[in-house]
Amino acid sequence: MINEPLNSAQAPLQLNGPWTREARERAVADEVKQAYIEYFRKAVKIRNWIPWDDLPLKEMESNGHLLSEDTITLIQSFLGVEDYVGDYVLDGLNVVHGRRERRNLQLQWGAEEAKHAESWELVLLHSGVRTQEQLTEYRDRVADHRWTMGENHPGFDTPLGLAAYAMVQERATYFNYDELRKRIRADYGLPEQATPEERQRGHQLGAAAAFKIVSTDEIAHHGMFLRIIDIHKRYFPYETLDMVFRVLNGFNMPALYILPDAQEMKAALERTKLYTPLKHGRSVANPVLDALGFDNKRALERAVQESKLLPTGLGPEAVSISRSGEFVIAMEPSEHDMAAG
Ligand SMILES: [Fe+2]
Ligand SMILES: [Fe+2]
Q1: How far is the CA of 170 from the centre of ligand 2 (A)?
Q2: Dihedral through CA 110, CA 113, CA 115, CA 118, nearest 10?
Q3: Is 225:161 a contact under the CB 8 Å cutoff?
Q4: Cα 332 to ligand 2 centre (Å)
Q5: Alpha-carbon distances of 320 from 18, 140, 187, 293, rounded to whole Å
Q6: Among 56, 57, 155, 238, which residue has the fewest nearby CB atoms (within 10 Å)?
Q7: Residues 6+ apart with CB under 8 A from 336
Q8: C-alpha–C-alpha distance, residues 124 and 80, integer Å
Q9: Rounded (10°) angle between helices 159-188 and 85-95
Q10: What is the distance in A from the centroid of ligand 1 to the CA of 116?
Q11: Are strands 327-329 and 319-321 parallel, antiparallel or unpaired?
Q12: What is the structure's pLDDT at 78?
């Protein structure tokens, strides 16, 4: 008999102070471990899928001739971005070294990401727009470069930076894939959202189905990293908010500049306006700020400044942050105060 699943209500919750740095680190590790267990359970039991078995390859074959050149270019460059998965995982494992809960999360996340490049290869191949030889040659050229966080996004190569960057990057990837799904549907002559027939049979047509399934992974990844940042925010408010602020200010997608077809991708992005600074603000940065409990970037900036001034020794139970970025300190009267009063 399998043990009853542990849910968050049963999770070992907050320790009480004194809030030394070590105590905070320990509390973060406990909560991240819990987040990992819950994430892993859902990923394996509910969200799991197999690229070679679960994508409608036959439908890709019959509809591939409808895909536009820009759509094909974009799918190929996302194949390149996803194919750096080995570097993302390796680099991350080095950065989080010694933190078991973060390492295990990195491994499970990597196992899921590994399916995405395979899916884009299947889409391009079965749509009949690239040959196996072309795809192998492309992926070999991608492998000529090595991606590292330190080189490509300096300053984010810390355990906290990694999580903050991934939180934003996964949301941006979700957005891009959902936009690309809509583009594919437009190429196919279909409306943006699934038709009643598609809903009835449970998946969208051809390549659109692949983008739907992969984008569902991406938003789950976003949710997981968001939770990690939220945990850190309670124990290390200044460091966490400052990192989120810096990541939001200096964000760009990983590996774009080292792709073999970077120029073609850039031109296709400009023509299609798939992902513009305005769309990034509206559909990536603003939802991230909202989910972290802030009205806007000004509020986050204020919270960074205010959290710098928080008295040391205050635990998460004594501090809350308003949506406009002000810290509210709840002072429980101590026995000493009551006696004095
Ligand atoms: Fe991915
Ligand atoms: Fe992802």
Answers
A1: 5
A2: -120
A3: no
A4: 42
A5: 18, 50, 48, 10
A6: 155
A7: none
A8: 12
A9: 160
A10: 5
A11: antiparallel
A12: 97
Q: Would the pLDDT of 221 be above 70?
A: yes
Which residues face 320 on adjacent strands? 328
For residue 168, give Cα distances in angstroms to 113, 226, 228, 229: 16, 8, 12, 11
Distance between Cα 329 and ligand 2 center (Å): 36
Task: Extract the tokens encoding 315.
Answer: 């635990």
- List, in order, residues 6 or more apart from 257 with CB less than 8 Å away: 152
Long-range (24+ apart) CB contacts under 8 A made by 186-192 are: 187/66, 187/67, 187/68, 187/71, 188/63, 188/66, 189/66
Residue 110 Cα to ligand 1 midpoint, Å, equals 9
Instruction: Return the residue matching tokens 């949710």.
Output: 223
> For residue 68, how far is its CA from the centre of ligand 1 (angstroms)?
22
* Ligand lying nearest the CA atom of residue 109: 2
CA 123 / ligand 1 centre spacing (Å): 15
Helix or strand run (H / E) with residue 48: none
Ligand nearest to the CA of 214: 1
pLDDT at 191: 98
Domains and CATH numbers, the chain: 20-295 (1.10.620.20)
Closest CA to 101 of 13, 34, 45: 34
What is the whole-number distance in angstroms between the Cα of residue 214 and the centre of ligand 1?
7
The token duo for 163 is: 């999580």
From the CB of residue 320, how many other CB atoms can be counted at a distance below 10 Å?
A: 13
Lowest mean pLDDT among 19-28, 280-289, 308-317: 308-317
Q: Which two tokens stand for residue 274?
A: 């798939």
Q: Residue 42 pLDDT > 80, yes or no?
A: yes
Question: How many Å lie between the centroid of ligand 1 and the Cα of residue 12?
Answer: 32
Residue 58 alpha carbon to ligand 2 centre in Å: 26
- Could you report the per-residue pLDDT of 45-99, keeping only the tens digit for each? 999 999 999 999 999 999 999 999 999 999 999 999 999 999 999 999 999 999 9
